[in-house]
Amino acid sequence: QVDLVESGGDLVQPGGSLRLSCFASGTILRFYSMGWYRQAPGKQREFVARIDTRRTEYAEPVKGRFTISRDIDKNEMTLQMNSLRPEDTAVYYCFGNNDGGIFWGQGTQVTVSA
After folding, report:
1. b/e 67-104 (16+ beta carbons within 10 angstroms → b)
2. How far apart are the first and last CA of the chain?
3. Backbone dihedral angles phi then psi of residue 88, each to the nearest 5 degrees
4. How many C-beta atoms surround the C-beta of residue 7 within 10 A?
5. CA 99 – CA 97 distance, rounded (Å)
6. Whole-angstrom Cα distance, residue 83 to residue 57?
7. What does the angle CA 31 – CA 99 – CA 103 come to, to the nearest 5 degrees?
8. d(Cα 103, Cα 114) in Å, to the nearest integer?
9. Nearest Cα to Cα of residue 24 among 90, 78, 80
10. Residues 57, 31, 19, CA angle at the centre, nearest 5°?
11. What is the C-alpha to C-alpha distance for residues 55 and 96, in angstroms, rounded to an integer?
């Protein structure tokens, strides 16, 4: 069994910052890639960012504001979110994939509001 757990979600004012973390346990193997999706109320789930051993990728709405990083050996991942906007409000889900499959966390709530 592989578990991914997110943390760091909170209520923040527009223009503020949050740092989300995702920690994976229960596996010896590192993930080939890890990343984040988010789902806002009344919206479909959308891609946010991804990182593998060679590159990073960001969705257009978060480019220049969000930064994804990872500790490969620990299967730990961080999403630094700056200049947050109300439209960033969503539940953020982390994922990781390896030969064992694709794994998801339970989500952490990010709310951007005055």
Report:
1. bbebeeeebebbbebeebeeebbbbbbbbbebeeeebe
2. 40
3. -80, -10
4. 13
5. 7
6. 19
7. 60
8. 34
9. 78
10. 55
11. 15
- A 10 A CB-CB count for 51 gives 22
Token pair for residue 26?
A: 């229960």
Per-residue tens of pLDDT for the chain, all 114 residues: 678 999 999 999 999 999 999 998 876 677 889 999 999 999 999 999 999 988 999 999 999 999 999 987 777 899 999 999 999 999 999 999 888 889 999 999 999 999
Which 3 state secondary structure label does DSSP give 34? strand
Cα–Cα distance for residue pair 44/62, rounded to 1 Å: 17
Task: Please provide the DSSP assignment of 58-84 as one string.
Answer: E-GGGTTTEEEEEETTTTEEEEEE-S-
Interatomic CA distance for residues 12 and 112, integer angstroms: 5
